[in-house]
Amino acid sequence: MSAASTSELPKYPFARPEKSVDPPAELKKLRQQCPVSRIQLFDGTPGWIVTRHKEDRYRREGYPEIHPGAKKEGIRPTFVHMDDEEHATHRAMTEPFFTKSASTALKPQIQSIVDSLLNKIKQKGCKDGPVDLVAELATPLNPKVLLLTIFKVSEKDANDLLSSNASLGGTSGTATESGPSDVHEFITKLVDSRIEKPANPEDDLISNIVVKQYQKGKFDRDGMINLLYMVLVAGNTAIMSSVALGVLTLLQHPEQLDELKKNPDLAENVVEEVLRYHTPSALNSRRVAREDTTLGGQEIKAGTGIIGSVRSANRDEREYPTPDNFDIHRKIDQNKNLAFGYGPHNCQGQWLSRFELQAVFATLFQKLPNLKLAVKPEELEYTPPTQNVGVTKLPVWF
Ligand code: HEM
């Protein structure tokens, strides 16, 4: 590749087409022409983007940031930003609550939360106009599941937090990075109350960390608050987008939607395909080269940032024939679905996410079979083109 100066390199993140959920056109071009390519980040830092490749040789320390907010001074890292043993030790504190089997055990509670959100929507009806599925279903879903089943707070406390207009969106960041103070205050109070009086430590995540880490002097109060804050916000935006974009895409593919209505067991496949097709948390898989390395014929120096474009890899025609078609019958190996990243930093909440989304897609069209969009897709408000794909509202009639 030519030795372009940094200022001539394409700026990342690339922009999606206006008013569309399609991936940026540059990804396809790079995938076909130059799958390991140079880019520059928001602050002019040069880096690489890999649009077709699975990695195992990159580390996190000093990893490239994609927007200025993440570069504030004094941010205390969570395991999202750690490497190797330190990463494994910190990740292990929350891991038992997010394994496949722990998430499977939560399925009945997840279903009942989905049922109650949908019953509320049904009860409200459309007499006052269309219902916004983002506000009424996609946004509260994940925080509600986490607060009730893993943090084990009372339904009242969970509802109070959710109705306080607290912004619970996040990008696997830290309290300081993405934090409205009411959520931070909520977590702080919760941690302090469990420090004072832990519940059964096997039962809830906070008591578990208090008893097994804090009381043994392995972890301090601020670290705990920061970690729990990260867990509470990390996946909310991605779940919100998966629900909203999944509903939108099914409504745009009525024959496939009819199949799902007739056979809700298809929800598991639907979820994998929605995640592949939209890859709603596409900007998170970032690494730094551990050592000088050659990848796709390009020489990458140790210490250089690398964006692993999971959004592009999920549209890789070598892995998925006709990748731009939405097809709920596509065979997708769950372990290969890069929507949740890969390697030691892969998404810790992936099984919980799958089961939440499966419950939504299996139930929504059973309870509201006549659901339809209240506006044209081009009239929806989309997230800014250089951010993760999403819609801010999804008004529907039913
Ligand atoms: C549809 C929903 C979700 C998607 C698409 C998603 C996607 C991702 C992606 C792409 C990463 C980065 C992986 C990498 O760098 O290779 C990630 C990391 C992470 N996610 Fe998720 N996520 C979702 C939901 C959740 C939920 C619900 C939680 C927690 C309750 C969560 C917790 C985390 C954590 C803790 C990490 C950092 C893991 C580490 O660095 O070791 N995610 N997620």
UniProtKB/TrEMBL annotation:
InterPro entries: Cyt_P450, Cyt_P450_B, Cyt_P450_sf. It comes from the Eukaryota. Belongs to the cytochrome P450 family. The keyword Glycoprotein does not apply. PANTHER family: P450, PUTATIVE (EUROFUNG)-RELATED. Keywords: Heme, Iron, Metal-binding, Monooxygenase, Oxidoreductase. Residues 1-24 are annotated as: Disordered. This is Cytochrome P450. Gene3D superfamilies: Cytochrome P450. The keyword Oxidoreductase applies. One of its GO terms (molecular function) is monooxygenase activity.
